[in-house]
Amino acid sequence: FADLVLETWDLQCERNGREHRTAEMGCQQLVVRRGQPFTITLHFSGRSYEEGVDKLAFNVETGPCPIETSGTRSHFSLTDFPEEAGWSAVIQQQEEGSLSVSLCSPPNARIGRYSLTLETSTGYQGTSCHIGDFVLLFNAWHPEDTVFLREEDERREYVLSQEGLIYQGARDYITSIPWNFGQFEEDILSICLNLLDINPKFLRDQNRDCSRRNDPVYIGRVVSAMVNCNDEDRGVLAGRWDNKYEDGMSPMAWIGSVDILKRWKKFGCQPVKYGQCWVFAAVACTVMRCLGIPSRVVTNYNSAHDTNGNLIIDRYLNETGDEDRRSRDMIWNFHCWVESWMARPDLGSGYDGWQALDPTPQEKSEGVFCCGPAPVKAIKEGDLQLKYDIPFVFAEVNADVVYWVVKSDGTQKKSTHSSVVGKNISTKSVGRDSREDITHTYKYPEGSEKEREVFAKAEHEKRSLREEEEGLHLKIKLSEGANNGSDFDVFAVINNNTDTERVCRLMLCARTASYNGTVGPQCGMKDLLNVTIAPWEENRVPLRILYEKYGESLTQDNIIKVVALLTEYQTGDVIVAIRDVYIQNPEIKIRILGEPMQNRKLVAEVSLVNPLSVPLNNCMFVVEGAGLTNGQQTKELEEPVEPQAVAKFRLDFVPTLSGLHKLMVDFESDKLMGVKGYRNVIIAPQP
Known about the structure:
Elements: E1 5-10, H1 13-19, E2 30-33, E3 38-45, E4 54-62, E5 73-79, E6 88-95, E7 98-104, E8 112-122, E9 125-137, H2 152-160, E10 163-170, E11 173-180, H3 188-197, H4 200-204, H5 206-211, H6 216-226, E12 237-239, H7 257-266, E13 272-275, H8 277-291, E14 295-305, E15 312-318, E16 330-342, E17 353-357, E18 374-375, H9 376-381, H10 390-398, E19 400-406, E20 412-414, E21 423-428, E22 435-437, H11 439-442, H12 449-457, E23 471-478, E24 482-483, E25 488-497, E26 502-513, E27 519-533, E28 538-545, H13 547-550, E29 559-568, E30 574-584, E31 589-593, E32 602-609, E33 620-624, E34 633-636, E35 646-653, E36 659-668, E37 675-683
Parallel strand pairs: 2-9, 5-6, 12-13, 15-19, 24-30
Antiparallel strand pairs: 1-3, 3-7, 4-5, 4-8, 6-7, 8-9, 10-11, 14-16, 14-21, 16-17, 17-18, 19-20, 21-22, 23-25, 25-28, 26-27, 26-29, 29-30, 31-32, 32-35, 33-34, 33-36, 36-37
Helix pairs in contact: 7-8
């Protein structure tokens, strides 16, 4: 027999991409999911492949120094029946001069870039030919993959959806912003793989790092560390919380991960300025979804940052309601992290499922700024000794807050009220734009027997949260929504649930604030020395908050913190009430003109009314949407926008993908920043 000569070959990127749900990454390279067969076609010149005469074998390799023992190299022959474990190659069909071969990786293969080589031999003669490269991803559709997710609609949301909503605002006023995850956009896959290849663990021991890339727990830990740059590790984002963002982008201005990851690559893996928790979480979510691990961004309201690990957050206020003596322990209005879905064979049964990963740099774990994966189940059960970082997340959702009022003579009085941590834990619903409350996955109902058991296990006494029915009560209420540019009222509501008249001093103080709990200047104040409340009566004391007072110092977080202190003269008892008031931005209106169809021009009309009493200068709209706009489109307005006038522009775009997509808009100006809006557009497939 003459030698078998390979003439051409086809990796069938398009067909394999469709079958492996990676087609949106483009047809330029072969991207497949592990444990699932993919087909390639080989064309021979001269004569066809003959079974029994010709031997065909394949070689797949990943990483810089592939070896069989670490699972980064595999050599396997063409057979009729694949072996149980390992890689396999099976003949699918044979025609004159061509051969279709089905290749399959094991469901626990290392993910990453692979090279594929074909070895042909007839008798003693053999040749080898490199027939291409491909990328292998995790496979949430394969029952034996550690990231297997049973429901198709969940796989669509948490692996395939390129857009989502991230919850912000305040516990009493939950808002959402749209986010373009864009994990299938051009270049993102190679940037994510690059991120794995410059992580310190890889640089320290390339072989060991590549051999561990079959484990989503390991990958999650690497991604959590690489999204922030706090370890001099060429991480993606630099964090900043002090409202000084002039030498970069304000964290509030981003509307997607694609722009951030592309900037990181373009500037030689220098950290992109700046991120805050939802930006870190969203970028990590993009990387995890891109690699095939089901992931979602979650928001925890009234999130505790317990630096000394005692599960108690001590806050000190002076008699006028100002923070006294900075405590390192903080309460954040909200805090975002990522949950990724995976099995935890390293922990024994019961801890599979959602794992919390927090890429925001807060505390070190094993010497590095990363956090997780922490099984949400372990957080709920108070199993603090399991890997990784469960005590920190447990505190974020469970710590107790104690307010101490420091009197002018230096004595401290413990407040009878303490605000409650870990509320309304939220994520986007599957397949809908509504909020799903997942608090019950992190903790048992408050005051339940089960909750007390968990706290005993975590060696922490949970105070009984039931407020005594009797006595004085203090709350802060809002009459209606607070709109940016307008004045509004807040009310201190005092209830005297006793049989005797009470005489008190009431201090009300409002300050602009950032979402991480730091406060700015005062923007409203009232001190009433003589408030008398009759038995079983309710008093409402209003405080008017004026735009001319808060407008200048309002941060881009749009939060005003109102503190009320009620001191009862007879007993000296102090009650504290705190409320974060969210100042609403104007709505961005988006109209779609034309019939939305794939590869056909569409027009979006975007507008916003200036609600302020001053003109807006340097106005700019930024628009993006995966599969819609071909990257980010910006429009700078030449003229200032006068009070109550409309800022608007028209955008032409050609959608490349069919189906439901979000067109997302961010508006920036000198006085009004980080205003977000989006519109769902259903694009019909090309006929």
